[in-house]
């Protein structure tokens, strides 16, 4: 019997199996399809075989990173959550999955990674506290830059066609608008993203209706994608929760997420608490010192070194050298006079 496929994903929190949308989607689909994956929940993407999360290492050594590729692979292994869907339901799955990618996902990326208070107080803080040192110092910022690039492409990819310079310029302008510090432009961007996301969630709510899942009593890939996108938004404690409040106003969608957590991930709320203690010492020196204490010590040393370097560079602090020859030639001279003589020379 061959070894099971291994899934590497971000660890969970807030009562979720993972804090990452793509990871939650794959974990949910694997549960729905009954795929026997060996799951590694980690907080260091450099431990992943692809250097990013999620990542699936197959029994043959192949590495897959995109959620769609991972789901296709699982289907080829006879783990298909869409096996009983009709042709029309299959078409609806494609349509609503595209709607999620085009309308809801950009708003989620903006909410978690671009909105200042949410990013500083929740997103960056969570990743910085869970990543091992020194990745916690620079990787959250690098991840934010990656999300910004992904958001720019998501807002412009429908109009971008190879060889059309005007459309390329349009994409560049979108990217510049997202990067600018102009409050007015950022408000326009966030307003459009919010409008699209609300439209998407309303359509999902209408399609779900009073059903337990989107196509009856059994979950499908569409349920996995919807759950992956909505559950982090529902459970994260966001200081700026405009989009979150809109989701909570749609009772059937909130019940949909809660039911999946209860049925398929009942132990993740308890696991999140136990993983926090065990994941703090993921490599690095001084493993006998708790991760938080180690960060404090190293941060203090870096700060002291920086202050000393600044003081020496600016002349606030100087080092005076006393020549041994001058001391020997004036053995009876007091120490203060010796220094004054050297300064006069």
TrEMBL record:
Family: Belongs to the metaxin family.
Gene: MTX1
Function: Involved in transport of proteins into the mitochondrion. Essential for embryonic development.
Domain Metaxin glutathione S-transferase: 198-260
Keywords linked to the UniProt accession: Isopeptide bond, Membrane, Mitochondrion, Mitochondrion outer membrane, Protein transport, Transmembrane, Transmembrane helix, Transport, Ubl conjugation
Pfam families assigned to the protein according to its UniProt record, in alphabetical order: GST_C_6, Tom37
Organism name: Merluccius polli
UniProt feature coiled coil, ranges: none
The protein's name: Metaxin
Domain Mitochondrial outer membrane transport complex Sam37/metaxin N-terminal: residue ranges: 23-144
One GO CC annotation: SAM complex
Record field: transmembrane: 297-319
Location(s), subcellular: Mitochondrion outer membrane
């Amino acid at each position: 019997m061959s070894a099971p496929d291994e899934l590497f994903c971000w660890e969970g929190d807030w009562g979720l199996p993972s804090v990452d949308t793509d990871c939650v989607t794959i974990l949910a689909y694997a549960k729905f399809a009954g795929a026997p994956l060996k799951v590694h929940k980690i907080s260091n993407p450099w431990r992943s075989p692809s250097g990013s999360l999620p990542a699936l290492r197959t029994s043959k050594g192949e590495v897959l990173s995109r959620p769609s590729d991972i789901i296709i692979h699982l289907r080829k292994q006879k783990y298909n959550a869409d096996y009983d869907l009709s042709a029309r339901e299959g078409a609806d799955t494609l349509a609503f999955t595209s709607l999620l990618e085009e309308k809801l996902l950009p708003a989620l990326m903006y909410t978690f990674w671009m909105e200042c208070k949410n990013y500083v107080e929740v997103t960056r803080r969570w990743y910085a506290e869970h990543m091992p040192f020194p990745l916690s110092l620079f990787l959250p910022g690098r991840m934010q830059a990656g999300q910004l690039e992904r958001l720019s492409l998501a807002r412009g990819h429908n109009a971008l066609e190879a060889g059309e310079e005007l459309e390329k310029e349009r994409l560049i302008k979108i990217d510049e608008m997202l990067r600018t510090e102009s409050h007015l432009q950022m408000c326009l961007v966030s307003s459009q993203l919010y409008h699209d996301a609300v439209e998407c969630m309303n359509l999902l709510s209408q399609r779900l209706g009073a059903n337990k899942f989107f196509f009856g009593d059994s979950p499908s890939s569409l349920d996995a994608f919807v759950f992956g996108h909505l559950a982090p938004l529902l459970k994260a404690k966001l200081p700026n929760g405009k989009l979150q409040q809109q989701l909570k106003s749609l009772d059937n969608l909130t019940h949909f997420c809660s039911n999946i957590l209860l049925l398929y991930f009942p132990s993740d709320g308890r696991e999140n608490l136990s993983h926090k203690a065990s994941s703090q010492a993921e490599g690095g020196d001084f493993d006998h010192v708790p991760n938080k204490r180690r960060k404090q010590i190293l941060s203090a040393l870096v700060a002291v070194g920086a202050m000393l370097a600044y003081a020496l560079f600016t002349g606030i602090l100087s080092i005076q050298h006393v020549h041994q020859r001058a001391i020997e030639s004036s053995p009876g001279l007091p120490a203060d006079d010796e220094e004054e003589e050297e300064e006069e020379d």
